[in-house]
Amino acid sequence: MSPRLRHLTTLEHLPRETIERLLDRAMAMRDACAHGTRKIDLLAGRTVLNLFFEPSTRTRTSFELAARRLGADVVNFDIGFSSANKGEELYDTLHTLEAMHLDAIIVRHKVSGTPDELVRHAMSGVSVINAGDGNRAHPTQGLLDALTIRQHRPDFENLSVAICGDVKHSRVARSDVHALSALGVRDIRLCGPASLMPDAAEFPQCRFVEDFDRAIEGVDAVIMLRLQKERMAQTDLPDEAAYFRQYGLDTTRLAKARKGCLVMHPGPINRGIEIASDVADGAQSRILEQVGNGVFIRMAVLGELLAR
Ligand code: NCD
User: Fold this and answer.
1) Ligand 1 pocket test: which of 50, 59, 196 has the largest number of ligand atoms within 8 Å of its C-beta?
2) How far is the CA of 272 from the centre of ligand 1 (A)?
3) What pTM did the predictor assign?
4) pLDDT, tens digit, 9 for 90 and up, residues 136-182
5) What is the distance between the terminal CA atoms of the chain, rounded to a whole angstrom?
6) Residues 116-144, mean pLDDT to the nearest whole number
7) What backbone torsions phi and psi does residue 89 show, to the nearest 5 degrees?
8) At what angle do helices 139-152 and 171-182 cross, to 10 degrees?
9) Greatest pairwise CA separation for the chain in angstroms
């Protein structure tokens, strides 16, 4: 059996077995808390800190719900009102918070690599979970996307998946590729305008297809990404109407995918920019299912890292 994880900062290089164990655990959590009402006492007495230096709706809320459903105490560190705004160094903030006896720190930061920095500086006994660092990794999103796909299309070896949009700035795309390729998906297509595509050398396991109409042909799942303007240089900013014409997912494009293709998006969605409203809200959309799975995946990760 692959060893139990202490921290989760990336899915890169995680063995397939570990990823499958986390997905299986998430399914077990889902069954155990039928309709999300029941609590499980796995983490009673444990304290988890949400340390978000970037905005978040889904990820922060679902980590909080996940921790509470497992019986842990949750502290939300509000950066806006914290001494981080008075210039306190990250490590001083960390050590101050650690002195309050935490078991896990869930961190989101605009600088890639921050969670690993925290792992290096954290006191022993504290687990670090990455809730998104720069454009590098968003491991729980990668896991929840893999779980959502597995529920509908478990035959990963024969799956075709397109990830489309601002791949260059997307930590979600990176973690999705890591999860899906570890699980055996061989046909992963990355699609977007050249200015928003990463270096091909970073993704040797993927096919780069610039034309969205070709990229979506016959795929079983399409993962749409938001234009992450906050991470873009001014020169990378595309004209939104032109972008939608070339890279927006509408019903005509979706018809080119395999019948019943899963439509996914990590949120927040920008209607009419990367996805048409009728597709986002349509019968093939799994977007809200992804959100629901996010809670179970985060329960699974917290359980893996913190259960005694
Ligand atoms: C993503 C993120 O913050 O990386 N959102 C999320 O966690 N659900 C993607 C995004 O912001 O576009």
Assistant:
1) 59
2) 18
3) 0.96
4) 999 999 999 999 999 999 999 999 999 999 999 999 999 999 999 99
5) 18
6) 94
7) -65, 150
8) 50
9) 56
